[in-house]
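Job type: complex structure
Entries:
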Amino acid sequence: MTTEGTHAARAGSLQGRLARLGFVDAARAVRLLSDPGLVGLDDAAVDDLGLAPDPDLALTTLSRIAETRARGADAFVAALDSDVVVRERAYAVLGTSAALGDHLVRHPEDWVVLRSDPDSDERPVAFASPESVRADLLRAVGADPAASGPSAGDAGAATYAALRSAYRRRLLAIAAADIADGATFIDVSAALSDLADATLEAALAIARAEHPADAAAVRLAVLALGKCGGHELNYISDVDVLFVAEPADGVDEADALRSATRLAQALMRACIAPTSEGTIWEVDPNLRPEGKNGALVRTLASYEGYYRRWASTWEFQALLKTRPAAGDLELGQAFVDLVTPLVWSAADRPNFVEDVQAMRRRVEDNVPAKDADRQLKLGRGGLRDVEFSVQLLQLVHGRSDVMLHSATTMRALESLATWGYVGRDDASALATSYAFLRTLEHRIQVHRLRRTHVIPDGEDDLRRIARSMGYRTHPVVELTDALRRHRLEVRRLHEKLFYRPLLNAVARLDAGEARLTPEAARQRLEALGYTDPAGALHHLEALTSGVTRRAAIQRTLLPVMLGWFASAPDPDAGLLAFRRMSDALGSSPWYLRLLRDESLAAQRLATVLASSRYASDLLMRAPEAVAMLADDDELTPRSREALVVEALAAARRYDDPDVGVAAVRALRRRELFRTSVAELLRLSEVDECGVALSGIAAATIVGALELAQLAVESERGSSLPTRFLVVAMGRFGGGELGFASDADVLFVHDPLPDADERDAHEAALAVAGELRRLLMIPTPDPALEVDASLRPEGRNGPLVRTLGSYAAYYERWSSAWESQALLRAEPVAGDEELGRRFVELIDPMRYPVGGIPETDVREIRRLKARMEAERLPRGADPGLHTKLGRGGLSDVEWVAQLLTLQHGHEVPGLRTTRTLPALVAAVDAGLLDPDDADNLAAAWRIATRVRDAVMLVKGKAGDMVPTDTRDLAAVSLVLGYRPGESGVLLDDYRRVTRRARGVVERVFYA
Amino acid sequence: MDKQTEFVLRTIEERDIRFVRLWFTDVLGMLKSVAIAPAELEGAFAEGIGFDGSAIEGFARVSESDMLAKPDPSTFQVLPWRGETPGTGRMFCDILMPDGSPSYADPRHVLKRALAKAADLGFSFYTHPEIEFFLLEHGTKRGESPTPIDEVGYFDHSPHGQGYDFRRQAITMLEAMGISVEFSHHEGAPGQQEIDLRYADALTTADNIMTFRLVMKEVALEQGVYASFMPKPFADHPGSGMHTHLSLFEGDRNAFHEPGADYQLSKVGRSFIAGLLAHAPEITAVTNQWVNSYKRLGGGGEAPAYVCWGHNNRSALVRIPMYKPSKGNATRVEFRSIDTAANPYLAFAVMLAAGLKGIEGGYELPPGAEDDVWSLTESERRALGIAPLPTSLGQAITVMERSELVAETLGEHVFDFFLRNKRAEWQEYRRQVTPFELTRYLPVL
């Protein structure tokens, strides 16, 4: 009883101690420690278990090793007591890697590699010389390291297993140095690469044993590419290789290649085939010419022919890291000598810039959304992005500078910094972060020796990883913080690597400090998509020189801006416009603040300047509008009511109408800019854009009309003898103005009861004339052209008419055409009462009771048919004309208008000036099939958006979908298509409008 | 790009090729050719050869800039009829936009897109055409009736007949260009020949058909006769069709084959046929693209004019050929309306798309027709649910205009051009006053 009680008490205290040491399941730990094989461990050895990254895992594995009762296991446990170094390393590895623990369970005797044995080798086992690693693995498969072309004892299962356990034994040593000794990531990944080389060599020895005749017939070299080639391998990763062969003397080339292929296949099998000892890693030969479809093995001459003629840019990028790894090293070196000059002239190839941009898109786009936050390798700022960016700079600058020819990312980064291609501080910060992320990746992989780049989300996993990286106090929190910090660093890498050095090229630096030469800057700008590098450098110099606050802020901002410009349609124009902005606004404090914060506003500014000539021009006229880019609310188009109030207020502030109208038109310009930015950034729907532009035009006319009336009154010296009204017509009346449209209007007046008819007419004419003058006089702001040619009798009729005159005219002469035009009539400015009466006058005309007569329907159809035949410009592709083409705007609008003329009297919803709401009303009333309405609306929207985009991009109106490749590409980017998808826009446009045209033919013409 | 390309450059050296003809096909199926010197070939492989597309049927208006023709090295052949040294080689080209993206106007690209869509579903598409054509006396004047070179009939063999020599030389030449011939014989009408090409993937077959037409014309020229692919040159004799056997493979497996099913035809096969039938009217303007094509379809005999299928029914639009137990991989369906004057790229693309639509939509196969559909009465056909194919180019255009399937398959650009061009042809034809009218009406009216 007593004994048992004491034992329980002791156990109780042990359990508490273990819990304090960091065991999660201390009760289980107590049980495991009572295993006969472990019970002898002294207190220090038990306490130190608590230091393992995952003490529970370490102890579990340890007890499994002890249970084997193997001789090696006993010696191992004894060493844990006696040898502090072994203990520390063993706990670090067992507490991090379940897979390496499993290896020790199978081979307890391998613990010896954890010893520090000063006698056997000058270097620790983990960092043994490549030669001794090679010898070790060759001996493991029964091959003689000293032989030329060593061959394994046999190619049986036992040999396969022997290779695997020898590989793991050395991996164990490397992991110990990595986790326990704090070896750098550079040393660890180099050791892993040496081990991979040796493994390939031993696998080749097995292949030779399997095919002895083939081995004699051919010289075979294994080249490492990718991470292994760069001497920066992961724990688990595909090992990228190429096989090169030359026939042995007297052997036919074709026979030799067949032999070499058999050897290569046997080599790959020796690495990947599953055995009782598991597998090693996949040998991936798919970077070879023609990829999976190409020959597995080629001769030097065949590679040369291929690389000289057909290789694409990415292949040269892959070859940048080529290194002889195994087999005939002399032949391997010959291959490297062959491809090196080709690699370093890849940047001279014709499609280099396009290729690189496409490659970059692939790197950035390729993130599975669900893991985006936990993904270390893919996506912008991922490990692959760092590696890719460094390689790109090597390819761009390496052709003229051999100092950059390093295969290893870290070393390449260092030499880029040393020779001024990248800023020194930036490079060293980036290197630190890259090393951190790679170490994290190593610790994730070493747990189960699985090829993964996703940060686990389990608390236990994170804790283990964090503790293995030395975060002890609040492991998970500290790791997460560090990760966030380093990621931030890496996410800005394009700015640091590509753009900031360009500024140094034009900056005055202290003598002796390395910097980008003008030639190197030119090469880089070209590679980034700038077509006029000399001009760009000139602008950069102007923007960043000097000691002003502006120059200082721009030096910080430009590296980012240059990247934003480069992803928009016209980087050169963007940079030029930015320089002009800066000249105009340079010293205003708010502008500098806006830029300094590198806010969303700065990014939007870059996009706008490099995409849209129209918006850039507006901005140049009054750069202060840039302020609105900072705020999404600011970019929501204003309501017509608010604008009208503001326009009236602006007009009334001035006595001189010419000055007043300048204020009104400045308001218009500001609003046009707001609306154009909303459209460019796709913050608004296309229907909203039309409503906004129509509201802007309306408010402008209201303001200008106020001024025109005042001007005429002051000239006459008396108040106006008549009431005046402006009616919006056409797309203006429909709330559908585009950036390129004129404003169609009618002028109506109504003499006051006691006024002289003639005098009233002259006064009204004067108001109309003054209104047009005010809207057109030259000011810094764009003119608004009002077009009154839709009035009765067209250009030959009087410019203004009285309400009575309209009534008389419509009574006598009204035609179907005029009824149709009046459908879009909406009073926008002037006397409200008169507006109501005008609407009352025209409603019976546009919504005639019983619908318009059949003869009128026929006339409208004929008119439309004739327009199609006659109005389309000669030689224009009817499929691509947005206004008059098949399925274009006029097609859709006429359908809505015909339905309204026929049914407006009975369907209130149709009594609207707007096209899309009329279509909806027609569907609700059962007059139009819902699918047909959808097709029409889709065509109307795409045609409207294309028209707007053409105007925004070119600053010039155009009725056609552009066919010039450059314009089309720019328009499709503005419309949200991806680079290289302009053909898709064309196909979409034709499809949508074709369907709409089908509807028009059935609904309108039938 | 690959070993093929190396092979091309090596062959050009070894065989002393002085000219290389780059071939491509316009939207109507006419072969176009531009010759370059071998020295320019590397550039052509890398970047393509620029040319002005505006003069090529259907190519204008895609872009205001020039287009590029980029040769496909796997199609390289030495032309056998131009004497061996110095020789001339040829390759088919893909047509590219100035920025290197494929041109939407290129019929070859249309077919490639359709094949890519099939590949997305896991299928590769194989075709095997039986090409019929006429050998005529040389020197027929424009507008006159031609004279066939002989008066013999189906399978007839005359020891030293001109047709026999012709076929021997033609086949030798085809084989020299890497085109395997399965079968050849004299067809039913005077002067009419049939040569069947071995089955191959649809793109290769389409390229082969383009080559075939040219080879036949060349050989005929050498022998002092004239080869014509006009669908129906003689009112009183059968016309020239291009019955095409179609099959889909999933990897190495014939997707149409299912042992033990009716006609050994799998569900995929049945739905494919159902798709072909359901969409047959709307693709007819592409498979039978000329005014004259409809003279053949309306002429009776083995030319199908009605939408139905049958097992060994030679009047049906789709026929399931006799199954040979040892050849599971040979299960296939024969599509019989298409004629030799179609643009093979576009025709194969729409046939494939119609069949795939059937598979994707899980179309049910209607009952087969075992009777000679020509001999049924109108009401019988209606009772059996057998619809007619379009009877004229005009009708075919009208049906095609409404087809989303054809628009999607051809791409909007080709679709639009094709319809415009064919509408114009139909208009032009309708203006004609024919000998029929003059002989019949002039004497009495």
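Summary: The CA atoms of residues 203 and 269 of chain A lie 8 Å apart. Chain A is about 60% helix and 5% strand.
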